[in-house]
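Problem statement: downstream parser choked on a complex file, so we are re-checking the raw output for the adenosine-5'-triphosphate run. The parser issue turned out to be on our end (a line-ending mismatch), but while we're here, posting the original submission so the record is complete.
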Amino acid sequence: MLSIQSIRTFYGPVQVHHDVTLEVRPRQIVSLLGGNASGKSTLMKTVLGIVKPRQGRVMFDGADITGRPTAAIIRRGIASVPESRRLFQGLTVRENLLLGAYSRQDTQAIAEDLDRILTLFPRLSQRLRQRAGVLSGGEQQMVAMGRALMSRPKLICMDEPTMGLSPLFVDQVLSLIQTINAEGVAVLMVEQNASLALRIAHHAYVLQSGRIVLQATGAAMAADPRIQDAYLGRTETAA
Ligand SMILES: Nc1ncnc2c1ncn2[C@@H]1O[C@H](COP(=O)(O)OP(=O)(O)OP(=O)(O)O)[C@@H](O)[C@H]1O
Ligand SMILES: [Mg+2]
């Protein structure tokens, strides 16, 4: 479905990715692990056309989307829940959610999708008219996820969805990711908390200084001593 092929990206003269190759199959949750500054967010931005690789390709559903305009990539079926959520703080929850459907014209279906998303995130129903800026971190994360779903994506890219959330919300966000995935949406997810990420991932990759150094199923990765030493030993589990 999504195939990142040997990409090299740069910020000016500084190379971030060294021939990174990664695959997300339909209906998969793929987790991308890696320390600070390893290039995880830049990889997400490359998928979304925000950063253009100097070499390599990004293929989605058989089409070459490398460096295409972000709006065109979203229309093809990729949505994003960016790092730190990026909501419009001054707009209401409802307005933020509807922004996710900005490229759609099917008003009736948009209204149905909004209803469906509110069943998924019941907390948001009472808050539709409030400004997004007054919501808690966990509620804002739900708005960001709901906004992504409003474009009816086949794939959602999530950059650190549980960052800064209380343990209760961390568990809620993770089970919501599984619910969304069970409805047929593939997920590419960056998560610093490896033990949480591997609990729900079908497949996982480890990025280190811009190189993929390991890949395995989520379960195999969780059992890998190298991963336990490097990531699981040090991470705090929310549970
Ligand atoms: N807009 C930019 N201009 C120049 N350098 C950048 C830019 N964005 C990121 N970088 C650099 O590229 C490298 C990779 O950054 P990136 O944000 O992709 O890492 P990350 O794995 O997401 O890190 P973190 O875990 O801290 O979120 C870092 O060295 C960072 O300083
Ligand atoms: Mg990042």
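For whoever reads this later: DSSP finds ten helices and twelve strands in the chain.
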